[in-house]
Amino acid sequence: MSTKTTNLLTDMKMPFCPGCGYHLSTRVLARAIEKAGIHPLDVVVVSDIGCCGLIDGLLRAHTVHGLHGRAAALAFGIAHGLADASKKVIAIQGDGGATIGLQHLLEAARRNVDMTLLVHNNMVYGMTGGQVSGLSPEPVKDRKMPDEKDIPPFDVVELARAAGAAYSGRIIERGDYTDVLVEAIQTPGFSLLEIVGPCPAHGIGKIKDIAGMALQDVTYRSDREPHVAPRRETHSLFSQLRSVKVDFQANLQGRFSLIVAGSAGEGVQSAADLLANAGVASGLHATKKGDYPVTVGTGFSIAEVILSSEEIHHTGIEQPDMAIIVSEDGLSMMKNRLTDTRILLDAALSWPDAPGSVASLPFRKTAGGKGAALCAIAHWLRQENLLPVEALQQAAAQHKLADRFLGIIEKAKTLAGS
Amino acid sequence: MSELSSRRVLTDASRLIIEAAVRAGANVFVGYPITPANWLYHYATQRFPTTLPATDEITTLQWMAGFATAGKFPVTATSFPGFALMVESVNMAYMMELPMLIVLVQRLGPSTGSATTGAQGDLLLLRGVISGGYPLPVFSPSNFEDCWELTGRAVAASLQMRTPVVLLTSKEMVMTSRSFDLSRLPDIQQAAWPEYRSANGYLPYRAKPAEPPPFLPVGNRQHQVRINASTHDASGLIRKATPEALANTRRLQEKIEAGMQKHMLFDYHAAPGSDTLLVTYGVTAEAARDAIRRLREHGRAISLLVVKTLLPFPPEALAILRRYARVLIAEENLSGLLRELIYGQMTPASVLGVNKIGKLISPEDIVAGYEKLSSMPSNPNSEAQGGKRS
């Protein structure tokens, strides 16, 4: 905290309409900063578009002038970016900004980030013609947009409280409320103060008008700890990657493409990953990608693997050299896709008019639904030795599910022809 | 780099992009989940010193802008639906002159389209995304090495020019694993803000012509900092179209044009004797490399231009285009966005698009395009035909 304070206000003339509540609230803000002994350059004022956004030039503090309705979110980023309790980040929004950005203020309250949000509720959109806002009380709507009068306004104070704000309160702008503002600003964590004031340009000129609008001064306090964004020591993402040594010899000149088609959650992707790893360990280039619906735990799961003795650029597969199909989900996707391909089909599936040659084997029965894809790959490698099945075993042995995968590869031996 | 000496691994490009961003100096990731950008978010939670989950993409950009005013370098990753929500806030950051990186992973549109299908559909959105047509720098990696290098480059360019930068990629680039030798990757230097070092009075938007202003974070005790998204003067105060404020706004265009001159990236492989140029970008470049090889094996010479700095479009790349009597432009969309970026509504008859949606463009598609183009009239004005530069 500062030893020397100066006035927060510049000598610029206030740009607000005669009688506007911002005259008072700006002076109260300056008094509060001074009374709290805060150096103006320890203050960052973040303002919205709208009448409240005219405040920048009046302040000797740092000022950030952003978009309509986003000051709370912008201030959130600044508060977390500074992460310094001696810096006071104060966002200022009107009632319109508070509702367009309602999610932002709720999130700031939920996380209890160390900042203050002043919601200047003058009950209308002042700069654009006095339209009603989400915070307009019924009497204002009755005058300006009678169809809306039975729709209740949001209570931002209650919303902020419910979301977890350390401090949330409302003040009807009459007299000096410096001490209220000092408490809001000094509260560690998120504080919201709704300041209800007049907008004479749009017929809300007198505090006594406001007094009849059923809005009350209120203060809620909670002693939650402020949220501090983590700053972690991290390590290179490459350190997690296992180097693949070439311990095996592949029997492949050129490119071989394989599609494994099954169901989500049945190990299709991990089986394909193991094959790609085994390919690399056999001196080949490899690519692998997955295709699945947006649902993660249900529906089809398709893996595409390309193995090649030459560098692979394009990773698309028009027609694969082989397709392994181990479930109904996978089969239904392949029916539209394959036109002339060798197919290894699980024995429980039926595709009478399959294009190309089909070998049917009981992968699911042998290794279970979750082992069928890997079982089929292991069987195929043993049959044709495009690369040694030992390369697949080595890749499986390095996986966190090594025991399970090695067991599946072993079980594949029992299939006819293996 | 000894850490990476001859390391063959199986990796995806999301990992490369996040690692490169952190090494280049990025330190905050704000995420909102969206397919196909989720792997980037996932890696970011492991690698960035600070990662925060935002409640939506508007919040994402606002938080990022806040972090940037405090001197952090923020990154996010998204796809069209999320980017659409960010548009106003990207304009804000552009006007405020805040650096940040947005990795835009393209997927099939319109609208939510197919979240798990790749595409190249957002180029012209980016060309027009800053109101007024101001240039937003866009880099597009064409392979895994690019994902590393262009990410580092994007962070550096963003800081150097104080501007948001987009890394434009696709599902098929960032969600595909490859065998890859990490030792092929060059070092990435940590980049820094153009910092203010003078003890004299500071005006937050006082800058040399065609340069960004030097930076000081908000909250510093030495100088008042005003950051403003509305038209503003050198002090950062809102001004309605005064000459000084308009000069500041014009400088936004000029600083990108000047600053991007050293970031005009493309790969050009001229085939001797060829009068045909294949132009592409992003993931389609991989199919183009295979197609060129196939054509060459059949005795057809065709040159290849892979554009990596898409916006602003490199003038040198335009000069290369003018040398060819026939031009083939391959991109994964129907209407030909790169074609329109280059030729507007007046695509010459000697220019043909190879276009497709829902699936990667294949080398066969490009070869077929080449065959078709070969039977079409060539451009009599190209330099290959002895014509003059237009």
Separate helix tally of chain A: 14
- Radius of gyration of chain B, CA atoms, in whole angstroms: 22 Å
Which two chains have the most extensive interface, and how many residues on each? A-B, 73 and 79 residues
**Biggest β-sheet: strands ordered side by side in the sheet of chain A:** 2-1-3-4-8-7-9
Low-pLDDT ranges of chain B: 1-5
CATH superfamily of the largest domain in chain A: Thiamin diphosphate (ThDP)-binding fold, Pyr/PP domains
Summing up helix and strand content along with how strands pair, one would put the structural category of chain B as alpha/beta
Descriptive notes:
Chain A has helices spanning 21-35, 71-82, 95-100, 102-111, 138-144, 156-163, 178-186, 207-211, 268-281, 328-335, 363-367, 372-384, 389-397, 402-411; strands spanning 43-47, 62-65, 88-94, 115-121, 124-125, 131-132, 167-172, 190-196, 218-221, 255-263, 285-291, 300-308, 322-325, 342-346, 358-361. Chain A has 418 residues and is an alpha/beta fold. Chain A folds into two domains: 21-221, Rossmann fold, CATH 3.40.50; 243-413, 3-Layer(aba) Sandwich (Pyruvate-ferredoxin Oxidoreductase, domain 3), CATH 3.40.920. Chain A has a seven-stranded mixed sheet with strand order 2-1-3-4-8-7-9, sandwiched between helices. In chain A, helix 2 runs parallel beside helix 4, helix 9 (268-281) packs across helix 13 and helix 13 (389-397) runs antiparallel to helix 14 (402-411). The longest helix of chain A has 15 residues, at 21-35. The radius of gyration of chain A is 33 Å and the shape is elongated. The termini of chain A are far apart. Chain B is α/β, with parallel strands linked by helices and 390 residues long. In chain B, helix 1 crosses helix 2, helix 3 runs parallel beside helix 4 (80-96) and helix 9 packs across helix 12 (363-374). Helix content of chain B is 35%, strand content 20%. In chain B, strands 2, 3, 4, 5, 6, 7, 8 and 14 form an eight-stranded mixed sheet that branches. In chain B, strands 11-13-12-15-16 form a five-stranded mixed sheet, with helices on both faces. Chain B folds into two domains: 1-263, Thiamin diphosphate (ThDP)-binding fold, Pyr/PP domains (Rossmann fold, 3-Layer(aba) Sandwich); 264-385, Rossmann fold. In chain B, a hairpin with a 5-residue loop joins strand 5 (100-108) and strand 6 (114-118). Chain B is built from twelve helices and 16 strands. Chain B is globular and about 70 Å long. At the A-B interface, strand 2, helix 2, helix 4, helix 9 and strand 11 of A face strand 1, helix 1, helix 2, strand 3 and helix 3 of B. Strand 11 of chain A pairs antiparallel with strand 9 of chain B.
